[in-house]
Design goal:
The chain is mainly α. 92% of the residues lie in helices and 0% in strands. It has one domain. Belongs to the UPF0337 (CsbD) family.
Length: 59
């Protein structure tokens, strides 16, 4: 698997994991968990986008 594809996959995984954390924090009213989820979601988006950009540069 190419590094760009790995970055996209890992980014999507972090994004989904962050979304779950954010929702769990929202349901349990745990502000800290909600913030961690948002942060992880944004980190995942950045990693996924970096993988897409790297893939375009490889062409």
């Amino acid at each position: 698997m190419k590094p760009s594809t790995k970055d996209q996959t890992k980014g999507k995984l972090h994004e989904m994991k962050g979304q779950v954390k954010e929702q769990a924090g929202n349901v349990t009213r745990n502000v800290s968990m909600e913030q961690q989820g948002r942060t992880e979601k944004v980190t995942g988006k950045v990693q996924k986008d970096a993988g897409k950009a790297e893939k375009k540069l490889q062409k």
